[in-house]
Amino acid sequence: MALLEIRNLHVALEDGTEIVKGVDLDVDLNQTHAIMGPNGSGKSTLAYALMGHPAYEITEGEIRLDGEDVVELEADERAQRGLFLAFQYPHAVPGVTVTSFLRSAINALRKARAGGEEDPIPIPEFRTELLGAMERLRVPRELAQRYLNDGFSGGEKKRVEILQMALLKPRVAILDETDSGLDIDALRIVAGGVNDLVGPEMGALVITHYQRILNYITPDFVHVFVDGRIVAEGGPELAERLEAEGYDPFLPAGAAREAS
Question: From 149's CA, which of 73, 99, 232, 247 has a CA 20 to 30 Å away?
Answer without folding.
Answer: 73
